[in-house]
Amino acid sequence: MAKMTIEDLKRIKETTLKATSLRQGDARVKITVHMGTCGIAAGAREVMNALMQEMAEADRQDIRVVTSGCMGMCSSEPNVTVEALDSEPIVYQHMDANRMRQVFRRHALLGEVQTDFALAKM
Amino acid sequence: MRELSLHILDVVENGITAGADGIAIRVEESVPDDRLQITVQDNGRGIPAEKIRSIDDPFITTRTTRRVGLGLSLLAAAARRCGGDIAVSAPPGGGTEVTALFRRSHIDRAPLGDMAATLGMLILGNPHVDFVYVHRLDQNEFSLDTRDLRNQLEDVPLNDPAVIQHITASIRRALSDLAGGDIHATTREDTHGKDDH
Lengths: 122, 197
Known about the structure:
The complex is a heterodimer of chains A (122) and B (197).
Chain A: H1 6-22, E1 29-34, H2 37-42, H3 44-58, E2 63-68, E3 80-84, E4 90-92, H4 97-108, E5 118-121
Parallel strand pairs in A: 1-2
Antiparallel strand pairs in A: 1-3, 3-4, 4-5
Helix pairs in contact in A: 3-4
Chain B: H1 4-17, E1 22-30, E2 35-42, H2 49-52, H3 71-81, E3 85-89, E4 96-103, H4 115-125, E5 130-137, E6 140-145, H5 146-153, H6 161-178
Parallel strand pairs in B: 1-5
Antiparallel strand pairs in B: 1-2, 2-4, 3-4, 5-6
Helix pairs in contact in B: 1-3, 1-4, 4-6
């Protein structure tokens, strides 16, 4: 029976543990990927994949990624909401892997709202 | 939907929305019997009996914000298109079980697709939920239980991005081994079978 490679997991555990213990703060940015039926059909998983890679590379513990259901704006899916501390949540529309990378690097990391992709301020 | 793994993602998200903190996914493939069966069980609050009869009607939903629900109707349509069907049961004790059966070789059967991405993202997005995934292809089986992973990881959160990356990659590898090293059996979404090699 195929199993997960436990050895690798242990190695990852050690490196990650060091990194996390240094900064166990509150989240400064929350990124929500909307994953209702509409979002999934429109490509939300691909968006989430890209976000996952960016998160792993950026190694920032103050950014939190969550998923949620449909928010009723199915025609503009995949939608992603970026909510930085002390500023209005921005909903991005028609996201794909590349747009997600840009939004992550510019908005989540640097605080620059990407108005070209924005659907609305909440 | 282009992949069965997207339907699975969708059905599991339903269960989590229904308050589940335990999800069991089974994919059972039999080449000699020409079957592919997907079962998703959750321990959420279930579905009221009067709604379950018309579960694949898109205008039936337990949601109260809107009157349309598409997830299960799409899965039902996908299964029936391939000489199969879906069955949904919700025992009074709680929880829901969705089973979808496909004729495996049917020309209209969507590929299972990137199951590793589906699982990786479910684990990342729902740190409070335990997942069990079992995939059987004839005599071979792959299984994954996030409770085991949590035990191994001890203080490291399971939804740490580096951990998720590793888990996703190793599921992808294991599933491609399961399919006898056939990389097309588990296409990655970002290439969608378009990779040149």
